[in-house]
Design goal:
The structure is a single chain. Helices cover 18% and strands 13% of the residues. The protein is of the alpha+beta class. The longest helix is centred in the first third of the chain and has 20 residues.
Length: 187
């Protein structure tokens, strides 16, 4: 009997807590309920130009993206190539005596897109330091390298992404690498 009463009071207590927490639903949320950086009904804010840092220690051939922690080539390849050649290009890339480059995932590459830029592009965010970026399609690796999946294209002409036919398609390569401990000094 005592155990049953204890369980009932516990269930009743959880119900009361649930009702208290659900007092303000999403439809009733006001500006004071939102984080300071989110402004309701405001136009999207451009990413700060300080998001990107040209790495002088890398002979200014690489750019750190502070938002993602990735290091991008400052100037991507200018010539179209097939999927295998694009992978090889990045694996053999050297910037300021540093190797370790790879093709970005489709998500990493798409993180550079500013969807508010109208075609014909290139659809890069304002304040970017990149050079020679074309309003064309760039190779993006599958989102999860663990699975046998086809590569993707990210179109810097209009911001779209699309699965690529790796047997016949050609695209541009924009190499990336993960930031390391030496990136902290540049920030």
């Amino acid at each position: 009997m005592q155990r049953r009463r204890f369980m009932m009071s516990g269930i009743l207590g959880l119900a009361v807590v649930g009702l208290c927490l659900s007092g303000t639903g999403p439809a009733e949320a006001g500006p004071s309920d939102m984080p300071a950086h989110i402004k309701p009904d405001a136009t999207p804010q451009l990413v700060s130009a300080s998001q990107f840092v040209v790495l002088s220690d890398w002979a200014s051939e690489a750019v750190l993206d502070r938002e993602t922690g990735l290091v991008w080539e400052k100037s991507p390849a200018k010539d179209s190539m097939d999927w295998a050649a694009a992978q090889e290009h990045c694996l053999n890339r050297t910037a300021a005596t540093r190797k370790g480059w790879r093709l970005p995932s489709v998500h990493e590459l798409a993180s550079l897109i500013d969807p508010s830029i109208a075609p014909p592009g290139p659809t890069l965010r304002d304040g970017h330091p990149f050079t020679d970026v074309q309003a064309s399609r760039y190779w993006g690796a599958p989102p999860n390298a663990q699975y046998d999946a086809p590569p993707w294209f990210v179109f810097f002409s209009d911001g779209r992404t699309k699965i690529a036919d790796q047997k016949v398609a050609k695209g541009l390569a924009w190499c990336v690498r993960n930031g390391g401990l030496d990136m902290v000094e540049q920030q």
